[in-house]
Design goal:
Blueprint: H1 2-12, E1 22-26, H2 30-36, E2 43-48, E3 61-64, H3 69-79, E4 84-87, H4 94-107, E5 111-114, E6 126-130, H5 133-143, E7 149-152, E8 168-173, E9 185-189, H6 196-205, E10 210-214, H7 221-228, E11 232-236, E12 246-248, H8 251-263
Parallel strand pairs: 1-2, 1-4, 2-3, 4-5, 5-12, 6-11, 7-8, 7-10, 8-9, 10-11
Helix pairs in contact: 2-8, 3-4, 6-7
Bound molecules: NADP nicotinamide-adenine-dinucleotide phosphate (NAP).
NADP nicotinamide-adenine-dinucleotide phosphate (NAP) binds at residues 26-29, 47-49, 51, 66-69, 72-73, 89-90, 92-96, 99, 155, 214.
Length: 269
């Protein structure tokens, strides 16, 4: 609670008078947290959407809650004299990423996009690519019917899409899901990263026969465990993302890119 109040207060605190370049990180990912702790010499503010009640807080200042669309974010960049914006949000957080691109352009603030690469299908994998959660639900409904035992790893907000699917679900999320949700549902509350041993145990103990995942990229223990067992994976492909000049794939590259922005002249940004 105290952390949350401090985080909220950061939105209203006076702009610090120090001369360090000011970097706003749009977060909610492990990469954003790592980045916030890797920029000594910068005044870092991380922005969280406020989806979880006890988020893991990064180093530096934190603000929580939406900005109010492109207008709101543009206003924030100007009012807080942000020198660089880093979009380190999840690859499926398409709205805030689109807003970030527009707001950075309007406010004349350089934008760095940190997007970890998606997963690549390996020999032994049986992936069914779908465009979104609704397509995943339709595929499951049509193919497996009521006998399927499904491990759903698309997060709390992804569970509703499967509410009408007649299958048994094990869903993993940080916080308990809210209706609508499937009527045969067991929830495991947990936060990654997850070990290979733990993923093997979950699949075996619950006799899982299909895994549903977003193509989030990063640690892939669940995919390795599914491959070992020959389980089919329904993989939700990433939403399209706008090309941005400074798109990087790792935290180290993002650190380098932020430093480069401040070594470069304004015309190089
Ligand atoms: P979204 O659909 O792209 O964004 C919806 C709205 O939430 C945005 O328009 C913005 O509101 C607000 N918002 C989102 N991220 C924000 C941030 N970092 N700081 C302040 N406001 C933010 O986003 P989402 O998919 O709901 O994801 C929300 C957050 O959860 C993101 O920060 C993302 O990194 C994290 N996350 C998402 C997923 C996923 O699968 N989608 C997975 C793991 C983590 P305003 O328009 O009012 O500014």
């Amino acid at each position: 609670m105290i952390d949350r109040l401090n985080a909220l207060a950061a939105d209203w605190s006076p702009i610090p008078s120090d001369s360090r370049p000011r970097v706003l990180i749009l977060g909610g990912t492990s990469g954003a947290r790592a980045l916030a702790g890797s920029l000594p010499g910068f005044a870092v503010i991380t922005s969280l959407a406020g989806r979880t009640s006890s988020p893991l807080l990064p180093a530096g200042d934190v603000r929580i809650g939406g900005f109010g669309g492109v207008e709101g974010l543009t206003g924030y960049l100007r009012a807080h004299r942000i020198d660089a914006l880093v979009d380190a949000t999840h690859p499926f957080a398409a709205t805030i990423s689109a807003n970030a691109a527009q707001a950075a352009s309007r406010a004349g603030v350089p934008l760095v996009v940190l997007r970890r690469p998606g997963w690549v299908e390996q020999p032994g994998d049986a992936w069914h690519h779908v465009r979104d959660l609704e397509e995943a639900a339709a595929l499951l409904d049509g193919r497996r019917g009521s006998t399927a035992r499904v491990f759903l790893t698309t997060g709390r907000q992804g569970i509703a899409a499967f509410a009408d699917v007649d299958a048994w679900f094990l869903a993993r999320s940080v916080e308990p899901p809210e209706p609508p949700m499937p009527h045969r549902l067991e929830v495991v509350l947990d936060r990654g990263p997850f070990t290979l041993e733990g993923e093997r145990r979950l699949l075996d103990e619950h006799r899982i026969d299909v895994l549903i995942s977003k193509d989030s990229g990063g640690p892939d223990a669940k995919l390795v465990a599914a491959r070992e067992r020959g389980l089919p994976v329904v993989m939700v492909d990433r939403p399209p993302a706008a090309a941005t000049a400074h798109t990087v794939a790792s935290v180290a590259e993002a650190v380098e890119q932020v430093h480069r922005l401040f070594r470069a002249g304004p015309n190089d940004r």
